[in-house]
Amino acid sequence: MPMLSxxxxxxxxAMRAVALTNYGGAELxxxxxxxKATGDGGPDQWHDAWNSMAQRLDDRGRVSAVEGDPxxxxxxLLRASTYYRISYCPLFGSxxxxxxxxSFEAEEKAFASAADLGAGNLRGFEIPFEGTSLPGYxxxxxxxxxxxxxxxxxxxxxxxxxxxxxxxGPAATGRGYNWIGVDGPGQGRNLIRDGLPxxxxxxxxxxxxxxxxxxxxxxxxxxxxxxxxxxxxxxxPRAAGIHSGRLAALIADPGQWDQRDNVVGxxxxxxxxxxxxxxxxxxxxDQMEEQLRSEDADPMLRWRLIDRGLWATGTDSLFxxxxxxxxxxxxxxxxxxxxxxxxxxxxxxxxxAAAPRLLEAIPGPGELIRFTDAEGAGGHCExxxxxxxxxxxxxxxxxxxx
Length: 402
Description:
This protein is an alpha/beta fold. It has helices at 8-18, 28-38, 43-66, 70-88, 98-116, 161-173, 189-192, 203-213, 232-243, 260-264, 271-276, 286-292, 299-313, 318-325, 355-361, 386-401, and strands at 122-129, 132-139, 148-154, 178-182, 219-229, 249-253, 341-346, 366-371. Helix 4 (70-88) packs antiparallel against helix 5 (98-116) and helix 6 crosses helix 16.
């Protein structure tokens, strides 16, 4: 797809919004307008352009609601929620930028208002969790309350429940499934407001979520399908390794393996040091961190590792970030995945390279679907080819549940 911006960072972030156009989360023309308004500017100009677009839609949606047009109202509010989120992406980091907090709260309110107006038959809920709560949403094909097979979504590294609704929600409800999304530690409100960092033991996150979801009237507890997006393609299988008996199926988009393999292999260390990591001299990573914090650093790489990485994992240095990510281990529990499992692998998605390794490790019935550029779905999580993804994955799921 043609680039929206000559700035690789702005292009990648804008494409996160464009990926949601199929299901009402964005409009291509609005995304192009926000990128144009940013021009050659930096994070401040980016935030202003996208936040202004979001505010205009937010205001328009609330006027439509008052004037009795719920369709226009929900359309505007849902897109506003997306643009608020895109506006604050470059502001990731600790301490939390006040503009990020304000834009996130506006995102929450816009999405919740759309739900209140009937969008997607959505309703919000809170799940008790370790002295606090995790925010979630359920979307249903209708308001009958009939128990149905349910897609239970696990987010990625920097996504939240609102973005995840557009990734799978309408596609699921259009096929007669419920969709449920929940923000876990390190995601959405739990990170931005409560400061809960991302954690590797997702089985201990999924347990309370399943306890709550299984008790919902709309959910057929025998047909809960756990699906993970991006890093969720690691987190969901990690949890399924312990809770497989409570799941009807597992989908990892994409399939992954131990995160240590991703982070340590690219470090500027000797083979022996990589083998022993993190039991090495911490100063070995200092030069890499200094370079990433310098003005000459690649902005996108600095954002991924320093701004986003340290913040989401609750770490203070690049060494500690890599050490923490090395604890995200799947190999020790993959043998417990007994439910039907589908793994995806996209042609240009580097984090999907280990999907065949996971497939070999699981004892239950498993299948791997490959997505390519030729079919328009070769990027990370089939971002601009989600209908291609949904057609193939839901066809597999219908057979798995049958």
